[in-house]
Each structure stands twice: as C-alpha cells, then as structure tokens.
Amino acid sequence: MGRRSPLDVAVADLAEPQRWAKALGVSTESVERYRATDVFDLHLDTFIWARILRYRMERRHTWSPTGRHFAWEVDLPRAIGGGLTGGIWSVTTNPFRSAGARRDAFAENLPRLKRSLAAHPLVEVVDTVAGYREARARGHHGAFVGIQGANALSSSLDDLDLAIDGGVVRITLVHLTTSRLGTTSSPLSKLGKTAGLTDFGRQVVERLDAGRVLVDLAHISEAGFWSAVDAHDPSIPLIATHTGVSGVWPHWRNLTDDQVRAIADSGGCVGVMMQESFLGKRPTDVRTVVDHLEHIVAVGGEGAPALGSDYDGMVTPPPDLPRHAQWPRIVEEMARRGWSDERIAAVLGGNALRVIEAVRG
Predict the structure, then answer these.
(1) Coil, helix or strand for 102?
(2) pTM of model > 0.90
C-alpha cells in the first residue's frame, strides 16, 4: 500500500478539528462549520477503477501512482473521514460496445457498485433523501447511484426500467461521445453544438421524468440542452451535476448563463467540478472554484450552486483541493467573502439534497 500521500490529511488530524485546520492552513471555525453540515458530492467516478483495475473502494489507499491526477482520488474511508456525508456514485458507460452489450454490462455493474459501496461498514446505499437522513442519523454515509451516459440503456426505452427499478437517482443524458440520444458538447463531436436531442432522446427525458429519475444536463451540447428543457416536465427540477460556468471561464464543457438560469428556474442546481482546465487559467485554486459558485449565485440565486467533483473521472483538481479532506478550504474562502452560514450549508449539500428530495422524496 505504501506510505501516506502528502495529498491526504493524516487520519489523526481529521479526528481533531484544530489539527485538521492546521494541516490545511484554515481556521478551526471553518473545519467545524464543515463538519456540522451535510457535505454532498453530486458526481463521483471511482467505480471506473473498481471495474477496470479492481480498485477496492472500501479500503483506504495510502498511495496514488498518479498523484492528484486522474484516479485514486477517492476511496470510502478517505471520503468519509474527509467529511463527505453523501454522494452520487456513478456507473460510466463504454460507448464503443454494442447497445445490447452496454445494457448487459450495466445490469452487471449496478449491483456490483452497490456491493462495493455496502462493503464499507459506514456506508448505506439509498435512493431517497428520507433514506439518506436515516443513514445519517446512524452516523453513516448515504450513497446514491447514478449513470454517466444514458446510452448504457439505449437499445430500447424499456431498458430504462433497469435504472428506474434499480434505484438510480440521476442519469447524465450524454457523455463524451454523441449517441442515439443526442450530441455531446465535446469538440470531438462531428455534429457540433448545433445538433440537439434526437426523438429517442426526447422520449428518454419523458421516461426519466415519469420514473422520477433526475435528468442530468452535464456534457450535452447546447442545442441538446435546450431540447431536453423543452421535452422535460416543468414541474420537476433539472440538474447539471458536474460542470463549470462560462461566465467565469469560457469553455466547451461549461454552461452559459442562460443554461444556469434555466436549471435554477426549474428548481434545480448546478454542481461545480474539480477539473482545472474547465475552471480557469492554470494554476487554479480554491478561489477559482468559489468564483464559479459565486457566479452561479449571481445568475441563479442561492438555491442553484452545489458541488460535483468528478473525482476519479480522469480529472486534475486544483492543487489545494485534491481530496474531500481539503474541502474546508472551500468553506474558508466562502466565509472570507462574507457568505452566510445558510448559503455555505446550501452549497456544501443543502441544495443538492433539496433537488434530489423534490424528485425522489
């Protein structure tokens, strides 16, 4: 297993607010604020490595071959020790398989992910906020499950029942490749940003609404975004779980102000991710992350910003935010800007949980 990475905070330091604060160079008050509230991550991709390289999510990993880059950024002991009270753990789709093979892989991977999560004694797999609250009352982490790329279940609309019946709480419609549903925002797409959802993609949105599964608009082309808004039941919140905003840093991966406003107007929220190149000119740091959160507040109100790290999703996070244990630095920066305790708590987890509860209960 090797020695503890300098990217991680020592277990003994995490157990004591003053030592944790000293390790991060923040105030003890920031650590105490952080520990006193729900801390929720809308997008965790750790299962990629459990699936491909047999990475053990339930074990503490004290060494990373990639440092703060790409993988080994999260395991359950470090996430829980670092204050993460809940999150959405994703099954990611291999787009190069046939539709039937993708469906079969998902049918195998969903229970496998749940088993990996439940293997840790302080984790409960939940599919409602009521279940999350019960888990938290027992001092446990509430683990939700999501899908990255609805083309996992795109051979027919009936495939979606595997997710709906399986307790999946959100599905990212499109990932890094264009699919039967619609066009990705990635510049690798041959169709570009002018192509929206297909008729099948619109039917998927309607089916997810009916099944009370959150429609996640991260990764989708701008035209596809507006197609999804048009097809979506306006009584149900929309969400973008892991993104940046173009009002701070113009980028193909980030949302425009109009997109942020549309999600906020639906009662939804926007999770800011921890990928340097999407956040700003490098080197980025905690101030850059809070710049994105602040812009979302300015455009969509205090109910709109949230956190969706995309840790383990091949991202390179800001150097001072490589793991969840460093997130009290986000609290420190928000407090430095004069944010209220209520707004800080909303960003850390309150907004995400409110949106999930509105759809799932």
Answers:
(1) helix
(2) yes
